[in-house]
Write a sequence for this structure.
């Protein structure tokens, strides 16, 4: 179900072009508006819809088997950390508003810059541990699981 | 001719930054403080790969800190689901680290639902936890951006560069910018390929305009396989394609429906149908793999492929369609909301389709069907490169120095790229990226990447190859469906069909030399096709090699309709000679993790 663009709302800003994972939102050179150049390679992932500052992009059914007349619209707000959806069916009987959080923290602030984290020791380098382990694996401050710690061994052959 | 842009002195190049690649770039900075870390990604890492639209669940989480599971429990689960054929060293390793990945995600702001009573994460099933994951990908991308020196978005990586000084050692990668058309050369000491799995290897059920509405994303071009196969890396379990039972036409996921909403399936007459196919199926695969009584008593899952088999057989017997019974669960408004959120969070297209066709699951039970096959290595199947495991777990046959390193020196994999590691999913793929990054840093620190030389000849040769389609005229046809067990032939194939398939794929390979691209966007599609072609050939070679039906419900060898543990309880390993294109196939032993006294 490919995207299409409401020409009167689009100002050619290119946000959709920048984000589409399929590289199919392009700007028409004559009209200077965005359009989907390859509808049969659209996943309806809504990445472009969410990125458009003017809500100019919508998604319709497949021309070959889905009828028109429904709508699934979305507004995503990074500042507020929420996404709001509205689903309306073709016959109007389903009309739902759904709200979900997209993050619990101010956007990007709690992701560490690992260049500033303390350097790993040689012992850590020689171990099987990754950054922030073992603390983050377990609550009991035990070390990482090994075959030995868990009383296991690897055996060739058939096992179920 | 296009402009050439060279990025030199890279230590770690991440080719493809979905879940595996972002994990690799993030972690590489911790172990490689002064290292130059570069990402080359064909889309924009904020929304690229299989998680572009988000996810509603993290499907791999042990919960060790809540006393829920140990890594070996997950290994046993993946083992039975894949009918025994997994790399248990890699799985154990992924599972023992995956919780730390998930705990970090939560700290970064990914909303993970919690059980209000116990305080643990809300479980959808034994391994799955529920999230509000619309922004899963932008969040992990943020982490990768904080670690990487440079992110090159919109670079389609077409080939790996090989060292001209030392045989079988990687030296970087090349590709082109899908917007400017510039030729990009990345000279790097180590490369982590995380370019994802493959959709559209087999003809999709939806054709025409609906062709993009596939299960795995249409941009999953099998590039991880194309890149590594072309360079001569060994591959494993490429025959192990996956077929999915999903909501019809929209491919809406069913996990939360089964596990959380407790919906169930029935045939057109409203009957349970699965169990009546089990006696016959047990004759095909043996009681060891299908024992409904044991499964009932111990909660050992029935392998997914066998459940598919029951669905396919019931439809063939004329009692389709198969319905998902939603009408009961959806009477509860809370569950109804979860049902819709589940789609909006990861497969919006299903919500669009139901809205367009007036399907309201509260008043009607929607249809399920089986998909066309997919080739990938992180969801519920394990195709990919043959990689070294970790030193403290792997037996000799599975270990050659660096964790997640392929059989090419300095070339690492993560996520779909790595073979034998099903059920890693998003969290496990990110974790594998982290493991590969640590190992790649060690590889460089150990001096293994000294003295790399890349000749001008190699750079020029690749450039000419990449832009050749701009001068040509031919188009592509898909031969996989009829010959290698696609959905139009009910997943059936045999020796003869596969041999014809191989022959046709060779013709296609010749034609692909003449594939035409009118503009840079088409050049992207041309290279995606070439990567898919390499992956396809590998799938057929592997399917031909394994003379048994190991996974009924995923595909059938009509000439060997039984599971054959005596001859085929082994992993299949292939190598395509980069010079001649000839394949060699071998069997590798299947090691299982068992109790010390077993
Ligand atoms: C519909 C669906 C539902 C799923 N549900 C769940 C779920 O509920 N829970 C869960 O945990 N997991 C789920 N998964 C699985 C999860 O998404 C994957 O396991 C995971 O994303 C695999 O990671 P990866 O890095 O291997 O591939 P991807 O994340 O797909 O990343 C591959 C990257 O490589 C890039 N790339 C490809 N080719 C090239 C090239 N030639 N040059 C440069 N870059 C390239 C792509 O653009 C992409 O960014 C689901 C997947 C799908 C499709
Ligand atoms: S819905 Fe996704 S695939 Fe389709 S045009 Fe928009 S961003 Fe691209
Ligand atoms: S993001 Fe919206 S306004 Fe901007 S070019 Fe795309 S459709 Fe037009």
């Amino acid at each position: 179900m490919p995207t299409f663009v409401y020409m009167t709302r689009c100002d050619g800003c290119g946000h959709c072009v920048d984000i589409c994972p399929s590289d199919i939102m392009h700007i028409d050179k004559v009209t200077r508006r965005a359009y989907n150049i390859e509808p049969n390679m659209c996943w309806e992932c809504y990445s472009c819809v969410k990125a458009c500052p003017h809500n100019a992009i919508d998604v319709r059914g497949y021309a070959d088997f889905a009828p028109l007349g429904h709508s699934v619209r979305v507004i995503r707000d990074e500042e507020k950390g929420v996404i709001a959806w509205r689903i309306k069916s073709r016959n109007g009987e389903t009309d739902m508003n759904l709200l979900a959080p997209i993050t619990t923290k101010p956007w990007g602030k709690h992701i560490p810059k690992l260049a500033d984290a303390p350097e790993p020791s040689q012992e850590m380098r020689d171990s099987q541990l990754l950054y922030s382990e073992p603390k983050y694996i377990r609550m009991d401050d035990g070390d990482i699981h090994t075959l030995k710690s868990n009383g296991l061994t690897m055996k060739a052959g058939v096992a179920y | 001719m296009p402009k050439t842009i060279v990025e030199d002195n890279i230590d770690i190049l991440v080719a493809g930054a979905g879940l595996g690649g972002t994990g690799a770039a993030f972690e590489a900075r911790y172990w490689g403080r002064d290292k130059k870390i570069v990402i080359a990604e064909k889309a924009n890492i904020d929304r690229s790969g299989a998680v572009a639209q988000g996810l509603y669940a993290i499907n791999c989480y042990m919960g060790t800190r809540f006393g829920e599971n140990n890594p070996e429990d997950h290994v046993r689960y993946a083992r039975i689901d894949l009918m025994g054929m997994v790399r248990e060293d890699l799985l154990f390793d992924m599972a023992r680290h995956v919780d730390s990945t998930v705990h970090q995600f939560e700290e970064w702001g990914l909303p993970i639902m919690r059980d209000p009573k116990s305080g643990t994460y809300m479980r959808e099933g034994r391994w799955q936890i529920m999230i509000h994951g619309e922004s899963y990908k932008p969040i992990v991308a943020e982490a990768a951006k904080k670690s990487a020196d440079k992110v090159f978005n919109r670079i389609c990586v077409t080939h790996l560069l090989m060292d001209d000084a030392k045989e079988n050692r990687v030296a970087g990668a090349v590709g082109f910018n899908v917007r400017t058309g510039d030729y990009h050369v990345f000279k790097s000491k180590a490369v982590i390929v995380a370019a994802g799995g493959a959709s559209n290897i087999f003809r999709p059920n939806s054709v025409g305009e609906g062709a993009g509405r596939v299960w795995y994303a249409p941009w999953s071009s099998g590039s991880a396989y194309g890149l590594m196969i072309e360079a001569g890396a060994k591959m494993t379990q490429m025959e192990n394609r996956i077929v999915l039972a999903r909501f019809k036409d929209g491919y809406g996921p069913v996990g939360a429906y089964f596990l959380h909403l407790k919906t169930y399936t029935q045939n057109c007459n409203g009957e349970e149908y699965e169990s009546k196919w089990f006696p016959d199926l047990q004759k095909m695969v043996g009681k060891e793999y299908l024992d409904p009584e044991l499964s009932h008593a111990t909660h050992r899952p029935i392998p997914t492929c066998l459940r598919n088999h029951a669905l396919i057989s019931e439809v063939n017997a004329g009692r389709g369609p198969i319905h998902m019974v939603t009408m009961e669960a959806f009477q509860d408004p809370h569950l109804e909301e979860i049902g819709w959120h589940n789609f909006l969070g990861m497969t919006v297209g299903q919500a669009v389709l139901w809205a367009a066709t007036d399907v309201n699951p509260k008043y009607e039970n929607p249809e399920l069907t089986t998909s066309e096959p997919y080739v990938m290595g992180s969801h519920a199947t394990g195709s990919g490169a043959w990689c070294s495991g970790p030193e403290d777990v792997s037996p000799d046959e599975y270990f050659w120095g660096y964790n997640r390193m392929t059989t090419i020196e300095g070339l690492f994999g993560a996520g779909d790229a790595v073979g034998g590691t099903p059920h890693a999913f998003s969290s496990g793929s990110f974790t594998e990226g982290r493991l590969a990054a640590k190992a790649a840093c060690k590889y460089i620190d150990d001096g293994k990447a000294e003295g790399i030389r890349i000749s001008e000849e190699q750079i020029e040769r690749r450039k000419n190859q990449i832009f050749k389609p701009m001068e040509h005229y031919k188009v592509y046809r898909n031969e996989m469906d009829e010959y290698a067990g696609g959905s139009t032939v009910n997943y059936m194939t045999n020796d003869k069909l596969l041999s014809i398939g191989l022959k046709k794929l060779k013709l296609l390979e010749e034609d692909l030399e003449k594939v035409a691209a009118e503009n840079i966007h088409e050049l992207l599609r041309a290279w995606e096709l070439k990567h898919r072609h390499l992956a396809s050939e590998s799938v057929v070679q592997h399917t031909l090699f394994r003379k048994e039906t190991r996974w009924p419900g995923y595909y059938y060898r009509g000439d060997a309709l039984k599971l054959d543990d005596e001859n085929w309880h082994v992993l299949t390993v292939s190598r395509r000679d980069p010079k001649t294109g000839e394949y060699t196939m071998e069997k590798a032993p299947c090691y299982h993790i068992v109790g010390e006294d077993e």
